């Protein structure tokens, strides 16, 4: 069957489903009526039908209707194919599009599976990238590892992984990032992981760690260290004196073992010891945030966020920034990062910080979105007078 004929078959199957038939019965019925179709064709048609059912609501918006035909128009738009190139493409294809079907629907949150109340914020923050970003957020996150450059080059790490059946390629977001295309489940038992040559870490998270200004031997504090992903990434780049703090000490439970595996040392600083810590060359605030940049990994988080919670987070970020800024020594840097796509947590938060702290000036701001492969992240670097 031609690709267009498979789309035509999927339309027939979906129409029966829309009339109330169960999906597997509708597929079986189509198979009985079209015995010329081989097993590959039937499997491909089933794949299309189930892909449509998964996104039925948003595809109905994209195709401007709920019939099999409209949903398949929506399906093709969703996967980036022009329905005009399929409908009417050959004599087995469904009939060519009408003018009304050809008119593309208005982009909006309902065809991006994005919380409606937050849509204006995303548009304000990301402009005409809002829709592709929101739609990218519906897919599974890619898997990345970080080559620990203190132990091996990225190429050596890729080769060591390949020897254990884990296939990866260098990724452009960071000199340490490796995109894993095969064998991801084997990573945690693979030698390069067990001996600290690699760590699991999103590529944009690695890129944020790359932006941390630090010179050999300097003192670095990760103020919101959590499991230690960022401090370990910075320690993988340059030798220094590393400190990790988190309001919730338990979040750092695994950090000493992870640091030992990576061949580095990270000193844990409980809240009561912060004031005794000598001022640092660089302090990183990887702040608690909406997590909107990592909703591919946490799709439930997307539906749990509320306006009240977002307001609370913004206030919390302000307080943390003020507290952490007091730990930076003159001439040093404060780095503010979030895995958020929302301006209110990112550029607006940075501007508010600068307004409250005239002894700091902004020397860089970077925005990462899922469109470049990794999670959405924001990173601002402030220099202290
Ligand atoms: C985004 S996570 C950090 C992720 C971590 N840096 C990493 O790369 O794996 C934010 C962390 O901030 C911590 N946190 C929340 N409120 C805090 C506060 N007032 N002071 C310090 N840490 C705080 C949370 O416990 C959480 O572990």
Overview of this structure, please?
Belongs to the class I-like SAM-binding methyltransferase superfamily. RsmB/NOP family. Keywords: Methyltransferase, RNA-binding, S-adenosyl-L-methionine, Transferase. InterPro entries: MeTrfase_RsmB-F_NOP2_cat, MeTrfase_RsmB-F_NOP2_dom, RCMT, RsmB-like_ferredoxin, SAM-dependent_MTases_sf. It holds the Pfam family Methyltr_RsmB-F. With 385 residues, the protein is an alpha/beta fold. The chain folds into three domains: 3-105, no CATH class; 143-200, Sun protein, domain 3 (Alpha-Beta Plaits), CATH 3.30.70.1170; 207-384, Vaccinia Virus protein VP39 (Rossmann fold, 3-Layer(aba) Sandwich), CATH 3.40.50. It is 39% helix and 17% strand. The strands form two sheets. The chain has a seven-stranded mixed β-sheet with strand order 7-6-5-8-9-11-10, with helices on both faces. It has a four-stranded antiparallel β-sheet with strand order 2-3-1-4. Helix 13 links the parallel strand 6 and strand 7. Helix 1 (3-18) packs across helix 3 and helix 11 (203-210) crosses helix 12 (229-235). The site of S-adenosylmethionine has 15 residues, from helix 12.
Order of strands, main sheet, comes to 7-6-5-8-9-11-10
* Overall average residue pLDDT: 95
How can the largest sheet be summarized?
A: 7 strands, mixed
So what's the CATH class of the largest domain?
A: Alpha Beta
Question: What bound compounds does this protein have?
Answer: S-adenosylmethionine
CATH superfamily of the largest domain: Vaccinia Virus protein VP39
User: Given the C-alpha coordinates, what overall shape results?
Assistant: elongated
């Amino acid at each position: 069957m031609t690709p267009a004929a498979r789309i035509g078959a999927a339309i027939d199957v979906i129409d029966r489903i829309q009339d109330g038939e169960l999906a597997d019965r509708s597929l079986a019925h189509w198979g009985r009526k079209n015995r010329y179709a081989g097993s590959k064709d039937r499997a491909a048609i089933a794949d299309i039908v189930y892909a449509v059912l998964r996104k039925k609501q948003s595809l109905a918006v994209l195709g401007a209707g709920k019939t099999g035909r409209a949903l398949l128009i929506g399906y093709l738009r969703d996967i980036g194919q022009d329905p005009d190139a399929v409908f009417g493409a050959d004599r087995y294809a469904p009939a060519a599009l009408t003018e009304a079907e050809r008119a593309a629907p208005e982009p909006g949150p309902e065809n991006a599976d994005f919380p409606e109340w937050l849509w204006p914020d995303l548009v304000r923050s990301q402009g005409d990238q809002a829709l592709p970003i929101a739609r990218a957020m519906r897919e599974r996150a890619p898997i990345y590892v970080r080559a620990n450059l203190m132990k091996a080059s990225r190429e050596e790490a890729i080769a060591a992984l390949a020897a254990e059946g884990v296939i990866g390629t260098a990724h452009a977001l960071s000199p340490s990032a490796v995109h894993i295309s095969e064998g991801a489940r084997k990573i945690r038992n693979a030698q390069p992981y067990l001996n600290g040559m690699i760590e699991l870490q999103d590529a944009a998270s690695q890129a944020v760690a790359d932006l941390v200004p630090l010179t050999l031997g300097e003192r670095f504090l990760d103020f919101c260290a959590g499991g230690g992903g960022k401090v370990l990434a910075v320690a993988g780049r340059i030798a220094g004196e590393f400190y990790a703090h988190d309001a919730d000490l338990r979040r750092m439970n695994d950090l000493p073992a992870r640091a030992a595996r990576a061949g580095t040392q990270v000193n844990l600083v409980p809240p009561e010891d912060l004031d005794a810590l000598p001022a640092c060359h660089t302090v990183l605030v990887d702040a608690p945030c909406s997590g909107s940049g990592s909703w591919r990994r946490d799709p439930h988080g997307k539906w749990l966020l509320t306006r009240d919670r977002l307001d609370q987070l913004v206030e919390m970020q302000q307080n943390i920034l003020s507290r952490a800024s007091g730990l930076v020594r003159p001439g040093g840097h404060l780095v503010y990062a979030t895995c958020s796509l929302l301006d209110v947590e990112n550029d607006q938060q940075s501007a508010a910080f600068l307004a409250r702290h005239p002894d700091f000036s902004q020397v860089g701001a970077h925005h990462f979105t899922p469109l470049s492969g990794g999670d959405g992240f924001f990173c601002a670097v402030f220099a202290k007078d």
